């Protein structure tokens, strides 16, 4: 239950905040005995901490807890960072604070120490009070959270059978047009990764020169560098989330960071 001293104050905050902004973040608390309650997350200062535990001095009191498996102060919620993100931090509890983000597995918040775990929209905090009953469930609700539908991470993909390079973002695949010299270079570097069980591997300067230009004695390490830089720039300019496609090992060569498909 929520501490009695705070009920009227919290209700007034909840009402006023909803009149101004109906999307104020809150915790939806579900108790093992079937009760439900909403707790608004109203941060008045940068140091606002909402404590959660078994004893009455906490802002959110988790009772009944006949086996005392919930710690006196079990965990706390706080807002940190200039973007207004909320975090949950375990307070050294005996039985742990667990968090489950939508589509993910349970994570032990204790493992993150004082850093805690950032809360995303509909994240579920689980605190177990008994081996025989359901846990306390605290669902973080923030309609404004831009991460509730995470943007897919882009990556580079090379199709060995088709000799084609793509940028992949979610379900979308964007082909990268290669010049003849770039194609020779990419083909060679991808093949070296393939021979290394798909793991990015070092391609040395002499081998790259041979693969791209054959026995041309006029070609130097700088020619490879220029070719690498132009392709990296083309990828970055059009897909700025993809960086470090080519990792430079000074005086040795380059590593091609790409996912291979067959």
TrEMBL record:
PROSITE patterns assigned: FHA_DOMAIN
FHA domain mapped to chain residues: 50-99
InterPro entries (alphabetical): FHA_dom, Sig_transdc_resp-reg_C-effctor, SMAD_FHA_dom_sf, WH-like_DNA-bd_sf
GO biological process, one term: regulation of DNA-templated transcription
CDD domains membership: FHA
GO molecular function: DNA binding
Name under which the protein is recorded: Two component transcriptional regulator, winged helix family
Source organism per UniProt: Planktothrix serta PCC 8927
